[in-house]
Design brief:
The structure is a single chain. With 563 residues, the chain is α+β, with helices and mostly antiparallel strands. The chain has helices at 5-21, 77-91, 107-116, 142-145, 190-196, 204-216, 228-233, 235-248, 252-255, 291-299, 308-317, 335-343, 356-368, 423-436, 439-451, 469-474, 504-518, 524-545, 550-554, and strands spanning 65-69, 95-99, 124-126, 148-149, 154-155, 180-189, 220-222, 347-353, 389-392, 410-413, 416-418, 497-498, 501-502. The protein has 19 helices and 13 strands. The longest helix is centred in the C-terminal third of the chain and has 22 residues, at 524-545. The two termini are 19 Å apart. The relative contact order is 0.19.
């Protein structure tokens, strides 16, 4: 999700809400089923029990070596980590694992302080919230990934989807281990689809046809927030990024690391070739991207929103919104309102994260037992109807300027890092996470957590994990189609943003003129003109916020002066 703070902000908000509900999208409290994405390394088949484990040596004082886990707390998380710790200590009697979970509120401040406190006992943390203070102070998991694992028949990286992990190839670093996933999909009411006689659409034209038929049958086709928050960091913002990405995939050839660049890796960038059919073609493990070249292309107009592709995208958007999403009421609908419409059986489709599947299952169980269903604001949703829920991936757009099949927003989450100490201690911390990320360790963690009301967010990135059949079934139809936020193909989708944060004023402008366009007050050419003016107005601010100066653009091969 590099370079897209809006989704990070959404994810952070989602995480806080999720913690309250037992959903922990950004912490190790999230969970999921076993699902290997396309184009990944084959999973090992031998269980941990078939391989001998080693016992850690005590420290020099004769005491047990202590490893402290200080991730964010959440429903079922303590029980799950405690079960893992107990099992690990049975295999490694020379180690004491201390579970010291921290509250969500104030965690970011706490973990940043932990990295700057000498002699801290804290080891494993949610490193995504540590910020810049963790730089150079974190254990580099890449140093261990090729090691044989005592908890599986293979190396550590073969236990899980290694390709989905966030890595800095230029620095040869991987300081975050992510075992969970969250993915943006379309959820739909299977009962309405069956009644109307339609199937989940695969293309945007099919999507329009499905909407027409559902509306003719007396239902609102789409329940979706249309307020500013949605355009900025919610569903409408997601769609803007997802479909802008379809038009700009080839720009990777402009801003990829080139020979002589500070971030160039000959073993990676020297063998890479552009392939729009591969949704993982611009992932960090395949090619390095040079942020200086990104902004250089924006500044000189090589990378622009004034394209046939952007006209195709927003002309297509206008065929759906607002008429199939509640008409004029679409712009006044917030997220809770869209959930209510969907739960009440008044609307047939809703974009959401795949975590909604388990949330929905739990809500229907509440309904059947006579309980009430509430939204994220804790207000009771009246008139909830029980129905069968399904998912489908983003319908792909076709037409002028569309370069590649659609991708979605899919994020590896969990973000487990650790504070670097001495070599023996670091080795032990890595060994604990090696067990945690094994089939045995994750199965224990997830099953215990689920028993204690921890809910799952999406497919697990650990191979061969077995979950209860009803939870497993919820994710059976999900598939990975690539993450549009791995590259910069959506850089200009909603205005301007820098790597250190969104330019809020730019996003506000984007909402204003997009509202006018979707309301029919301006045409597509006026929208493009205003969008490009927005980018021109804020591109320098976005560049500076990314630690890049105008002088850096003259020598994009050099490390930016502000980084």
């Amino acid at each position: 999700m590099k370079g897209s703070k809006s989704f990070k902000k959404w994810l952070a908000l989602f995480m806080v809400v999720a913690m309250v509900c037992g959903l922990t999208a950004c912490s190790s409290g999230s969970a999921g089923t076993t699902a290997a994405p396309e184009n990944t390394t084959a999973a090992p088949t031998t269980t941990a029990a078939e391989k001998e484990t080693t016992t850690a040596a005590p420290d020099a004082s004769g005491d047990k070596m202590k490893v402290t886990v200080s991730v964010q707390a959440g429903t079922g998380v303590e029980e799950a980590w405690t079960a893992v710790a107990k099992a690990y200590m049975e295999k490694n009697p020379g180690v004491e694992v201390v579970i010291d979970l921290k509250p969500v509120d104030g965690y970011a401040e706490w973990v940043q302080k932990a990295f700057t406190t000498a002699g801290t006992e804290t080891d494993i943390v949610n490193i995504n919230l540590a910020g810049a203070v963790a730089s150079g102070k974190s254990i580099n998991w890449l140093e261990y990934m090729s090691n044989d694992s005592p908890y599986s028949d293979g190396t550590w990286q073969e236990q899980f989807n290694f390709e989905a992990q966030v890595r800095d190839l230029a620095r040869n670093e991987m300081t975050s281990l992510s075992l969970d996933s969250v993915q943006v999909v379309w959820t739909y009411n299977k009962d309405i689809f069956e009644e109307v006689g339609v199937e989940p659409p695969k293309t945007w034209d099919e999507f329009i046809t499905v909407c027409e038929k559902i509306q003719a049958a007396g239902y609102q086709p789409i329940a979706m927030a249309g307020d500013y928050n949605s355009f900025w960091s919610g569903a409408m913002g997601w769609l803007a990024q997802i479909y802008a990405d379809q038009t700009t995939r080839s720009m990777i050839e402009v801003y990829k690391a080139q020979e002589g660049d500070f971030c160039y890796d000959p073993d990676v960038d020297g063998v890479w070739s552009y392939d729009p059919t591969d949704p993982y073609n611009d992932d960090s493990y395949k090619v390095n991207q040079n942020a200086v070249r990104v902004f250089k292309a924006v500044m000189d107009g090589t990378y622009t929103a004034d394209t046939p592709g952007m006209r195709t995208v927003w002309s297509n958007m206008a065929k759906i919104f607002p008429q199939y999403a509640g008409g004029d009421s679409f712009f006044g609908t917030d997220n809770n309102g869209s959930v209510s419409l969907f739960y009440q059986g008044k609307a047939a489709m809703r974009p959401d994260t795949c975590g909604r599947l388990i949330q929905f299952k739990n809500d229907m169980e509440k309904l059947r037992s006579g309980g009430s269903v509430t939204g994220s604001d804790d207000a009771v949703i009246e008139g909830v109807k029980e129905f069968n829920i399904g998912t489908f991936n983003m319908p792909t757009m076709e037409g002028d300027g569309i370069e590649a099949p659609v991708r979605t927003i899919e994020v590896a989450t969990g973000f487990l890092g650790a504070i670097k100490k001495d070599k023996a201690h670091d080795d032990q911390v890595a060994d604990l996470l090696m067990y945690f990320s094994s089939e045995e360790g994750q199965s224990l963690f997830l099953s215990t957590g689920i028993e204690n009301a921890m809910t799952v967010q999406g497919p697990s990135l650990v191979y061969n994990v077995k979950l209860p059949a009803d939870i497993q079934a919820s994710f059976d139809n999900l598939s990975f189609i690539g993450n549009c936020q791995k590259g910069n193909g959506q850089k200009l989708a909603r205005g301007m943003s820098g790597s250190s944060g969104d330019i809020d004023a730019s996003y506000r402008l984007f909402y204003d003129y997009t509202y006018k366009f979707l309301s029919g007050d301006i045409d597509i050419e006026a929208w493009v003109k205003e969008h490009c003016a927005n980018i021109d107005q804020y591109k320098e601010e976005a560049m500076i916020s990314s630690g890049i100066s105008a002088s850096d653009l003259e020598h994009p091969e050099n490390q930016p002066t502000g980084q």
